[in-house]
Inverse folding.
């Protein structure tokens, strides 16, 4: 019998032990999920009040105010929106609240299918029924039932990438022109992108949103939020304040609360895999390897040739602000590919969170996007040469 044959049953038993061991250090592992809604939502009282003010007219049989919810990633925008919608639905049946993730739904039909499902409890047929009939049924329902409709479009910038934003905003906000008595509002949620420059004038004239700003969390706030997650997610004494402080430091450096929440989850999984009742320094070091530079290196090494070419152009550009128009000219010279291919590649880099884009409203053909690299050039170059 070979060494491999001898070791296989033992290795299999080890894996089974990890999967089937009935002891756990997690009191509620869901507390570390990205979409977990904490009961005690901290440090966003003023923003929640502003959202409530926008919705309040709808509770009084009026039209809701529109809003733009602005802030960098992981500053609580989505959580605040879901929490305020929960509060509205508990207190009143006169307002229909519909939250939509625009990374997942970018078409006109896709957006209104989500609204349809929220109202009627099922999705409309994907074929055989014209969009106009679906739209009519939605609006006739809110008019006949004397209800207001508030639609939260999260990551709304994706609607501009798909060039559907103006039509969707128009359909929602001007519904009362075709269906008298329709009361509708839009909350656009996005990360530091001034997108209103990209809206048509006839949409902007009726949108006129309130701006609700979510500032990055302070270090003390990050500590308290992560501390509460540990109390919710772990049994007592699983993680020390010293380890938590190190996780808070890494989270503060990244500026992304999700980094800390993910580190807590990974540390817990690593401790459990070793049957350890506590999280120690070794678990944190391993978690940092899995969620830090190694994660970036993995993302970079998974890029296609076109994506690599585009990222290199962004990294090496030194002549001031880089816009999508300038970048396309450089990309065309290097790869001789179409604008649609360029746009898809640029969207992919943004989806992978390697770059951010910001609408400037100053392009020759209309609105232009400013390209912002999320990592330092040295950090990316270091990871790109790693095997």
């Amino acid at each position: 019998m070979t060494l491999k044959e001898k070791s296989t049953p033992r290795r299999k038993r080890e894996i089974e032990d990890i999967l089937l061991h009935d002891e756990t250090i997690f009191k509620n592992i869901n507390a570390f999920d990205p979409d977990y809604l904490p009961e005690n939502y901290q440090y966003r009282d003023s923003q929640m009040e502003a959202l409530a003010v926008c919705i309040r007219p709808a509770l009084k049989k009026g039209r809701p105010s529109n809003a733009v919810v602005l802030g960098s990633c992981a500053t609580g925008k989505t959580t605040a929106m879901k929490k305020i919608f929960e509060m509205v639905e508990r207190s009143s049946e006169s307002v229909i609240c519909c939250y939509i993730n625009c990374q997942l739904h970018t078409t006109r039909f896709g957006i209104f299918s989500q609204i349809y499902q929220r109202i009627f409890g099922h999705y409309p047929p994907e074929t055989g029924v014209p969009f106009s009939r679906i739209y009519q049924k939605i609006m006739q329902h809110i008019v006949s039932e004397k209800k207001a409709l508030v639609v939260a479009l999260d990551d709304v910038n994706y609607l501009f990438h798909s060039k559907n934003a103006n039509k969707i905003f128009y359909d929602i906000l001007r519904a009362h022109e075709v269906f008298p008595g329709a009361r509708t509002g839009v909350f656009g949620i996005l990360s530091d992108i001034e997108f209103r420059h990209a809206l048509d004038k006839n949409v902007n004239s009726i949108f006129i949103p309130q701006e609700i700003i979510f500032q990055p969390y302070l270090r003390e706030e990050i500590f308290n939020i992560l501390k509460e997650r540990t109390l919710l997610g772990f049994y007592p004494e699983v993680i020390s304040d010293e380890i938590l402080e190190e996780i808070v430091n890494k989270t503060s450096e990244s500026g992304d609360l999700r980094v800390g929440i993910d580190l807590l989850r990974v540390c817990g999984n690593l401790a459990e895999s070793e049957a350890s009742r506590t999280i120690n320094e070794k678990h944190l070091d391993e978690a940092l390897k899995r969620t830090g530079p190694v994660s970036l290196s993995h993302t970079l090494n998974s890029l296609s040739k076109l994506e690599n070419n585009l990222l290199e152009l962004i990294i090496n550009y030194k002549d001031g602000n880089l816009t999508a128009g300038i970048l396309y000219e450089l990309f065309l010279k290097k790869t001789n590919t179409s604008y649609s291919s360029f746009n898809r590649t640029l969207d992919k880099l943004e989806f992978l969170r390697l770059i951010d884009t910001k609408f400037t409203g100053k392009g020759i053909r209309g609105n232009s996007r400013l390209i912002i690299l999320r990592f330092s050039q040295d950090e990316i170059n270091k990871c790109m040469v790693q095997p």
User: Anything to note?
Assistant: DSSP finds 18 helices and seven strands in the chain.
